[in-house]
Write a structure and sequence with these properties.
Elements lengths: L2 E4 L2 E4 L3 H12 L4 E4 L14 E3 H7 L6 E4 L1 E6 L2 E6 L5 E4 L1 H14 L3 E3 L3 E7 L5 E8 L2 E6 L2 E4 L6 H5 L9 E11 L6 E7 L3 E12 L2 E10 L6 H11 L10 E12 L8 E2 L2 E3 L15 H20 L5 H30 L3 H12 L3 H8 L5 H10 L3 H11 L2
Helix pairs in contact: 1-3, 1-6, 6-7, 7-11, 10-11
Bound molecules: flavin-adenine dinucleotide.
């Protein structure tokens, strides 16, 4: 007998967006299913896990889930800069621990978690609106009926694609990374490495987790470059380029690979009975390809809006629109500005990167942090563009705010 279930809300995808949506919806008192295709939550890690301590605190993520970062080092072929903060503001997450904590929170609030279920079909009503999903699990075919579905399947956007609402992302980042034990690592300092030898469109990184464990990775912008990030990662480790040399012997313990959308905030994210959240909605900062805190934050908003709509018995696009309004108000301008900086960075030659690092040296710590977090409000940017004592910084921010 095929398995069949009835839920108020079905959330497909047990990443940070899905778990957070399921948590907020279950907490609001409706019947929620959270469905994940892998054997466990975060079985496969597809991210470097850098985020910000302010957000970690806001979400209530436990202190044992991250390594704090105080120093931000950049290296280009012939230049280097380190911006230091008196207290740690950034963090490298223990991704598995954090994502499992998020899923446990959802379960604790009353959501049912289904693992090993690969959703591959949508169920529609006579108006072509979604009213459930189908997939395959250990016992064969499985069906979930629901009033609303949240597509939190990440880059692949399985549900929205099956509905015919979206096609594959055209512009995206591809990243490969080793989690490795090394001989020497400063647990307070991350490294971003730029220039042709590291990657022709993107950046390479060393993110420390403490206890001499680091994540060393390479990100490549597609379609701008056809370089394979895994191959390039092996090469830069073999050549011991830049700060990689200082790590000493590198013993990989895990390999991570992932794709992240970089098409801007181009997608509509609410339809009748359907919400897109996290990477499926393209909610990422294109400058450093950062999406975890948006996935959690807007996952919670999606869960709350969906559960309110279900309680009010009105689940059409209009009823779900407050979700889209919320996230657009929060990040649209900032992400658009970050996109302009990215457009500038993606075309820089090695020499230009050396000069760009000279500009970054001129930023105060809080200016730098706003910049890298894409947290520049328009007024902040205008201030930098008009009043910064250094001409090069004024020019950079003029470019970012203009266009
Ligand atoms: C190389 C790389 C490095 C990154 N580094 C950072 C970083 O340092 N900091 C940061 O903030 N962001 C980073 N990101 C981005 C970040 O990982 C994403 O923005 C974030 O994971 C989005 O969360 P999500 O829940 O939307 O999607 P995901 O984390 O991708 O979760 C989607 C979940 O859905 C499940 N799923 C998919 N299809 C189905 C299906 N058909 N049925 C059931 N389940 C399904 C998947 O197994 C997965 O568990 C990086 C991305 C990449 C690729």
């Amino acid at each position: 007998m095929p398995e069949e279930y009835d839920y108020d809300l079905v959330v497909v995808g047990g990443g940070p967006a899905g778990s957070s949506a399921a948590f907020a919806a279950a907490k609001n008192g409706i019947k929620v299913a959270l469905i994940e295709k892998e054997n466990s939550i975060a079985e496969t890690v597809r991210t470097s896990g850098v985020t910000w301590i302010e957000s970690i605190k806001e979400f209530g993520i436990p202190d044992n889930c991250y390594n704090p970062i105080k120093n931000f080092s950049f290296v280009s072929p012939n230049n280097e800069v380190t911006i230091s903060d008196s207290i740690a503001t950034a963090a490298v997450l223990d991704v598995r621990k954090t994502y499992r904590w998020l899923a446990n929170e959802a379960e604790g609030a009353g959501a049912d978690i289904f693992l090993k279920i690969n959703i591959n079909e949508v169920i529609k009503n006579e108006n072509n609106d979604i009213i459930g999903v189908k997939g395959t699990g250990p016992k064969g075919e499985i069906t979930f009926h629901s009033k609303i579905v949240i597509d939190a399947t990440g880059f692949t956007s399985v549900i929205s694609k099956a509905m015919g609402f979206v096609t594959q992302w055209k512009r995206f980042g591809a990243g490969a990374e080793y989690e490795a034990i090394v001989e020497n690592s400063d647990p307070d300092t991350w490294w971003l490495m730029v220039g042709q030898e590291y990657t022709p469109a993107g950046y390479a990184w060393i993110f420390p987790l403490g206890n001499n464990i680091v994540r060393i990775g390479v990100g490549v912008g597609k379609p701008e470059s056809d370089i394979d990030p895994t191959q390039r990662l092996k090469e830069i480790i073999e050549k011991q380029l830049g700060p990689i040399k200082k790590l000493g012997k590198i013993t990989p313990i895990e390999f991570h690979y992932g794709l992240i959308p970089n098409d801007g905030l181009s997608r509509k994210t609410v339809f009748n009975n359907l919400i897109l959240v996290g990477d499926s909605a393209g909610q990422a900062n294109p400058l450093v390809l950062e999406g975890i805190r948006y996935a959690i934050r807007f996952g919670r908003v999606a869960g709350k809006v969906a559960s309110d709509a279900i309680k009010n018995k009105k689940t059409d696009e209009d009823a779900l629109y407050p979700y889209e309004e919320n996230w657009r108000n929060a990040i649209e301008t900032k992400i658009n500005s970050a996109g302009k900086v990215q457009d500038r960075w993606i075309g820089l030659s090695d020499k230009e990167w050396d000069k760009e690092l000279d500009i970054i040296k001129e930023l105060k710590t809080d200016e730098f942090l706003d910049f890298i977090k894409a947290d520049f409000g328009l007024s902040n940017m205008l201030k930098l563009a008009m009043n910064h004592p250094k001409l090069a910084v004024r020019q950079l921010f003029n470019l970012v705010k203009g266009k």
